[in-house]
Amino acid sequence: MLNRLILDHPVPDLQAAVITREGSTTWASLRGQAESFLQTYPSLGRRRIGISFRPAAESYAAAAAMDRLECDLFLLDSRLPKAEALELSRKLKLGAFLIADENRASPLFEICELPGEEKWSGSSSVTILTSGSTGTPKAARHTWDSIARPVRKGTDNQAPRWLLTYRPNLYAGLQVMIQCFTDRGTLTVAEPEMDPQATAQLMLASRVQYVSATPSFWRRLLMFADPQIMKNVGLKQITLGGEVVDQAILDRISRFFPGVRLVHIYATTELGRCFSVKDGIAGFPADYLDTPLADRVEMTVREGELVVRSPNSMRMYDPQSSQPASVSDWFPTGDLVDVKDGRVHFVGRRSDMINVAGSKVYPVEVERVIRVIPGVSDVRVFGKSSSIAGELVACEIVPEAGQDPQVLKDSVIRVCRADLASHQQPRMIKIVDRIELSPAGKTLRTRIS
Amino acid sequence: MIATENQGRIAEVILEVCKSKGLASPSLTSETALDQLGLESLDFAQVVIRMEEITGKDPFATGAEYQIKTLADLAVLYD
Questions:
Q1: Structural domain contains residue A195
Q2: Does A90 share its domain with A196?
Q3: Which of B22, B49, B58 sits opposite A427 (nearest CB)?
Q4: Is A169 exposed, middle or buried (0-12, 13-18, 19+ CB in 10 A)?
Q5: Which H or E run includes A185?
Q6: What CA–CA distance (Å, rounded) separates A74 from A48?
Q7: Would the CB atoms of A389 and B42 count as touching at under 8 Å?
Q8: Same domain, yes or no, for A382 and A311?
Q9: pLDDT above 50: residue A225
């Protein structure tokens, strides 16, 4: 699938395919890189190959070539130090690990051959590695077809210009890339750790039209980037996903960008994309439940948790990963939901739940209360372990510019006391400059012990 | 009266917690009975976490049981 998009695609040669901070790569050059990979490394075919997957043309070209070579491809985070990436590749019993040669010499990749390679699966596949809570990551084996399946060819634009804000090796990042390349567009890469002002300038310079990002990404951008630059970019569509989309961020974005189409999607690494919502309201309609959706995705709620069966889902966990093989095609998402007044709302991850002396607290519910307090620009709620209560609720708050920290702290305490039960109230409030985001661009829920 | 450094620290933390609960500031001495302050167990957990931030110690982390009635009883665990 990816191999056809890049190797067989009739696209004007001089149009940019990938724009990064390092420069721009045309479609002709992207195809050229994929062809040269095919010629240089035919011996990698039908093997288990890992790649340090940078958000750059050479990674996409190599992935396309290895799709044609019917490899089992494993995408490793490019920020992983080489020694750790090799260690992980050994654990997964890969036959070789590819890393871009820093000297940019030819050939472009350094190939590290590894002993003890596991058997090839029998057809082209792409495995997404997500950090589990401990040790070996989860390894979700998709095919390029399963990732591309929910992608619809865009109708309103011949060569759309997309901004990639997600890590390129994770599901959301792959979806954005496939969507953009399916429409023969131009993919501009904003690395998540890029500062907001530089991101805004990059968006303006490459006249980005479509952005897919987490609410956390937008909060940071709207807070720190020059508003005039943002308004001048000329966005057509904003897609939110990757974490809970609350009404506050939907309203804030639609006020800031009137007339821009606002969509939020729900997807997981294992299940792929499940559905999208276009009405600008948080959550999703309850009639999406217990009935097959257009894409043949089926969803239901079991014990408060969203459970999904989807043809967009991964094929299996890689046998070398830490996860047990699935026994059912219904897959628990780990996302807890609340059905009220015909709408299904996300209340948080089962694993993010804070246990305060036996009472459950969902960080998102507390964040929702704090986020609307005047003077609060951003907030993150997490559990702090307590020898007395098991855990207590803690939070970090980013104040709006010019806000007195002590005054803000007092008003947060006052509002929480009025609106939250005692066990839900944050017992530790810290004023910070910024909220740390995870590699996937999500608000971190790391517990502090 | 407040006799030791740790009694002073605990008094300060208790006042902080009372303030955040909207309670009137109690006058505290080493003999103040902790269960007379209108604090619930989560408030007490909060006091322990704040004291750990200040002193680097958590006497409750070992799971040991203590007989604590007064502010001085609590403070001595941090000495």
A1: yes
A2: yes
A3: B49
A4: buried
A5: none
A6: 8
A7: yes
A8: no
A9: yes
Compute the nearest-CA separation of B19 from chain A (Å). 9
CA distance A448 to A386: 10
The CATH number given to whatever domain includes residue A108 is: 3.40.50.12780
Among the partner residues A388, A413, A414, nearest to B45 by beta-carbon distance = A388
CA distance A164 to A409: 36
Residue A441 lies in a domain: no
Residue A405, burial from CB neighbour count under 10 angstroms (0-12, 13-18, 19+): middle
Tell whether A130 and A277 lie within a shared domain.
yes
Domain boundary among A330, A349, A368: A349
- pLDDT tier for residue A210 given thresholds of 50, 70 and 90: very high
* 8 Å CB contact of A417 and B21: yes
Same-domain status, A343 and A357: no
Nearest by CB to B41, which of A387, A388, A417? A388
Min Cα separation B60/chain A (Å): 6
Residue A122 reports pLDDT greater than 80: yes
Question: Both tokens of residue A2?
Answer: 């990816």
Q: Is A436 domain-assigned?
A: no
Give mean pLDDT, residues A412-426: 94
Mark A415-430 as b/e (b = at least 16 C-beta within 10 Å). Answer: bbeeebebbbbbbbbe
In a domain, A449, yes or no: no
Residue located via tokens 């956390």: A216
Among the partner-chain residues B22, B40, B60, the one whose CB lies closest to the CB of A422 is B40
Tens-digit pLDDT profile for residues A165-182: 999 999 999 999 999 999
Size of interface A-B (CB pairs under 8 A): 40
Q: In B, residues 4-43, which contact A (CB 8 Å cutoff)? A: 20-22, 40-42
pLDDT band at A133 (very low <50, low <70, confident <90, very high): very low
**Mean pLDDT value across residues A239-262:** 93
Does residue A287 sit in the same domain as residue A409? Answer: no
Chain B nearest C-alpha distance from A430 (Å): 12
Quote the domain boundaries for residue A220: 1-349
Distance from CA of B5 to the nearest CA of A (A): 23
Inter-chain residue contact B46 with A392, CB threshold 8 Å: yes
Which pLDDT score, from 0 to 100, does residue B3 have? Answer: 86
Query: Looking at the structure, do residues A344 and A358 belong to the same domain, yes or no?
Result: no
Token digits of residue A275: 């559905």
In the numeric block, which tokens belong to residue A61?
């070209």
Q: Measured at the alpha carbon of residue A305, what is the angle toward residues A130 and A427, in degrees to the nearest 5?
A: 80
Same domain for A54 and A36, yes or no, is yes
Q: Which CATH superfamily is domain B5-78 in?
A: ACP-like (1.10.1200.10)
> What does the alpha-carbon distance between residue B55 and residue B76 come to, in Å, rounded to a whole number?
12
d(CA B72, nearest CA chain A) in Å? 19
| CA–CA separation, A381 and A413 (whole Å) | 14
Residues A340 and A392 both lie in one domain: no
CB contact under 8 A, A392 and B45: yes
Q: What is the mean pLDDT of residues B17-28?
A: 91
Treating both helix axes as pointing N-terminal to C-terminal, what angle do A215-224 and A247-256 enclose, rounded to 10 degrees? 50
